[in-house]
Each structure stands twice: as C-alpha cells, then as structure tokens.
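ok so for the tutorial part 2 we go from a plain amino acid sequence to predicted structure tokens. step 1 is just haveing the sequence, like this:
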Amino acid sequence: MLKRRGIVLPAFDIYGGVSGLIDYGPVGAAIRRRLTQKWVDHWLSHGDIVEIDSPTITPEAVLVASGHVGEFNDLMTECRACSSVFRADHLVEHLHPNADSLAADAVDDLLASGIECPSCSDAAWTAAKPMNLMFSTQIGAMSSGRTAFMRPETAQGMFMLYPALYRHFRQKLPFGAIQTGKGYRNEISPRQGMIRLREFNMAELEYFIDPDNPPSVDLARRTEIVSLVPDPDGPHAGETRMGFGAALDAGIVRHSTVAWFLARTWDFLVEVGIDPAQIRFRQHASTEMAHYAADCWDCEIHGEHGWIECVGIANRTCHDLESHEAHSKAKGLRAWRQFAEPRTQTIERLAPNGAVVGPTFRADAGAVVAALEALSELPDELPFELELADGRSVTIDSSMVERRTETANVSGEWFTPHVIEPAFGIDRIIWHVLDHAYEEAQKEGEDYTFLRLAEGISSVDCVVLPLFDKDGMPDLAREITSAINSLPRARAEMDSSKSIGRRYARADEIGIPWALTIDHTSLEDGSVTIRRRDDQMQVRAFVDEILDRMAAGTIQELF
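step 2 — the prediction. this is what the tokens look like for a chain of 559 residues:
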C-alpha cells in the first residue's frame, strides 16, 4: 500500500534500488513535512528554544573534536563462504539483550556458536572489526582539498553556533536550539525498510543549562504512567511502570531536565498518533553509553519490527563544548555565572618579566604574555613548555616569569554549560505512525484499508468530492478547495474520478480525515455533506461554517 499510494518507495527502483535509501512519494513527503513541522512547533512553543540551520557537510576537525572520527564505529564481519558483509551485532542480537554494547571478542564468541549466514547458510565468519559509519568527502579541489564528512548528526552544527546562541539569548541560560534535516551513516547492513537507513531525516534539540543551577521542572501535574526499563546494572533493574516525577524522585531518572524531556517526548509522540501503550523508555547500561553521555534513555516504540529506538535523550554534560574549545582554541564556548555575593579568591599566576620576554620572543612576545595570562593550571616546575594560541610551543624559564599569589574580589565565574539532547529519528517515527494507524477491515464483502492518522499529520486535511463531474459541481468543488488551502496550515485536494464510494475509500486509505461532497443541493444553498473518516458518519453543514471550524480546529464539533 505504501508503494501503490505514493507514501514510501524504494529509491532508484528502476536501477534495482539501493539498500538503505528510500523515496517519499507525493503523499509521504507531505506527511513527513507536516510531522516535522509539528515537531518544530512543539519545541518552539517553550519560548527559550530557537531553530537554526547548518551545513550537512562537516570539516574533519569538527568531527575529530566531537569524537566521531575515533568513536563512531560498528562491528562488521564477513562470511568466509560467500563474502557477504554484515553488522556483527545484528547477527547475534537474539543471543544477547544489548548486543551492540559487546566488545569484538565477545561478538566473535557468539558468532562461533553456529550463527548461519543469512545469504548462504554457512557458519564461518571473519573476526569482527570496527568500521567507521561516516561518509567521507572533500571540500575543495585536488591538493587544496580538505577532508570532510557528511554529518552523522545535526548536533555539531548547534555546538558550532553556541556563541551566536549565547548572544541571542542575552547571555542567560537555559536556552536551546533545534535543527531538522538529513543525516548520513554508512550502515553496514541496512534492514527493516525505514528503520535503518543510510540517509535519514532527523530532528535534534540541544538544551544548554547551568549544571549548578538547572532549570526547575514541575512534574507533579503529570498523571500518565509509563513503562521504564532502568539500567540493568543499576539498583533499579527490571521493567517498571510509574510516572515521570516518581521516576525522578526514586533516582531512576538521574537528572531533572532529562526527566522533563522524557515527558515532553511522550507528549509529542502521542500527539502525532503513536499508541501510548506501545511506548517505553529504556536507560542505557554503562557499557552501552555513547562516548559523550553521562546518562542516556532510548524512547522505544513497538511495532511490526518489535521494540525500536526512535528517540534518544542524552545528558551530554560539557563534553562537546569543552572538546571543541580544546581543539579549536576558541574562547567563546562558555557562560558567565554571577555570584549572589562577591567572593574573595586567592589566585596564583605567572607574571611575565617584560625585560626578558620582549627581547627573547620579539614579535611573539604579545602571544606569549597572552598565553601566560590564560593559564588555568600553573606548572609545578620551571622551565616548562607553553602552548600559544596558534599551536606553537615555547620554553619558559625562571628568568621570564615571577610566581605571584594575589587576592581579589570576584563577582562571578566562567563555566562550560552542560547539554541535554533529545534526538528524534523522523523516519522511524513516521514508520510507527503509519504502523499504528494502519487497519484492514471488511466492508460490504471487500477488503478495506484505513490509515487512522492524527489530525494535522495526513497529507491533506480534507478531500473535496463533486458528486458528479457536471452541472457546475466541479467548479464549486474547486472554489471550496481553494478556500480551504487559503487557511493557515489547512490543506485540501479535489478528487472527481470514479464513484463516490471509490473516492471515499481512496481518501481513507491514505488517512485523510474529512471528505466534503458537493451535490445538487450544494449548488442551491451552499451546504455540503461532510464525512468523518474514522466512523464514516456524515452530517450536512454550510461551507462558511466548515471553513471557520477548520481554521479554529473545531470541526469535530459538527458531529
């Protein structure tokens, strides 16, 4: 049905397709756009979150600093008989609850237990070895080119923009930035259709907080009870059901801002049509944790492929900003914390001796003095090697500096913000929205298919149907379609092909919630029949009232 109705199709199909790449057809692209817009609106409504857009091509230096060049790997193995290549943990995941957290030797032991090749059924494997998942490319031509990668996540673009965000929010935390767009991962063995793709749609939020003064959250009003799977190595192991506030109070969720984002993630997923009974939050074990995370939860959704991670909520601490500051030598990746009262601090520093530093370093004397003033940790002994801002090192001996202890009153201090990150896999969420909305039924002896999509997620909100393709009905249908499309965020299309029953069925199959039928009475008094998808109930109403209710989002009140 997804292929036939232009929702999701294999990419490059006439050339045999490419594993891990899909097309969204006319219906699917509209669903993806509308769901993504709901995600953007969901977070922008908080007031301290803004949207940004950064390049998908990322210089190598950025991803070296973030750890992706060294850490962003999966284990691969090759069948010795047919040379097919697979992601090793996928072959043994039925033997271990978190196979992707295993080291290579542990995976090799499981492979040796008789795991058969999915391609040829042989059971001989090469040793599992890491493969970096990023697509490499080059910025510039020939010898002047720079190594770069297609971004594996949108997060790094938001870290690069931290100084601009800090200015935008007038140097006050907390604040956040969101970004939607493409991500790229050279998956070893893509599978399960939309679940594991090489080019995918993602939506991420980076929320910057003061770790000593995190934003207050009010979870007392949250009444939903949700499924939680805490760290299996922690004190709360075992799946449990409780509220978000109770989980925070019990220490299962370790950070109040993480708990708040778990709750807001739940809100979004339910709003776009995910069955609440099919949502759970699973905490990463320490062996599974990403290299940048202090705590991480996966929001998993159950569907045709079992429990699938669709959102990751991670406490990235100060890892990214500190790492980028160290690698880039930038000084603008911090925030200022004002003390309630001025504090007296004893400061040790190396005061430069200008009479020696100037003649010794000449043109570089200013850079040496700046580097001495910027030292946060003083050397235990002299001489020592001092690193300058441009990466060069110079030797500083006892004749060049004097160690001084000074007392000063300070009103505040610089610190590196911590970051809480919810990262959403848009394609995986769309798959589960479709999966949960899909129904098959018998109607008048024939198979009948519904997509019971949530309001605002279907490709259009309303289909306009002239009962007959004559007598002025198509003209009135076009006028009504145009009037609906002029409303903010309301969309309609017209369908005049084949019987009215067949047209209703076509609209139901792709999830259009409302159908307006134009008949002879419509030409006389401006009333139309409006039909509700979910129960096929029909009422008569005037077009002006329907337009007003569509604009206000109250069309349900007609029934």
